[in-house]
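FAQ: What does the model actually see?

It sees only this:
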Amino acid sequence: MDPTSSDVIKSMSTALAPAFLISGVGVLLGSMNVRYGRVIDRTRHVLTEARNRSADSPRSSETDAELRTLYGRARVLRLTVILAVGSIFSLALSIFLIFTNIVWNVALPYVIPSVFMIGLIFLIISLLFSSKIS
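And it is asked to produce this:
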């Protein structure tokens, strides 16, 4: 069955929600990347300061504690970025499946909402981890 123009319009309006959500997650992803970059820059600065001290003196416990904190933040931020990218992938896949459903008449009644929900779950988990970072 060939898709009619009303079918295409319906699928395009259905695909708007994931498309706007992708745009919003992209902005969040940019913010997360900036935060991740700051943590990496601070880690490099702390390591450079530790190396510039005399070679005889060992690293102080404060430096070790700060590095542990920074590594922990970097790990959490990396996870938030990965989850946000997974969310974007799932949302883009749901848009693809919406159009696959209309163009090739492939019935996917539970797959499309499931993929969309997976994208939302990735986004929620990403935001939860992002809020844990102080």
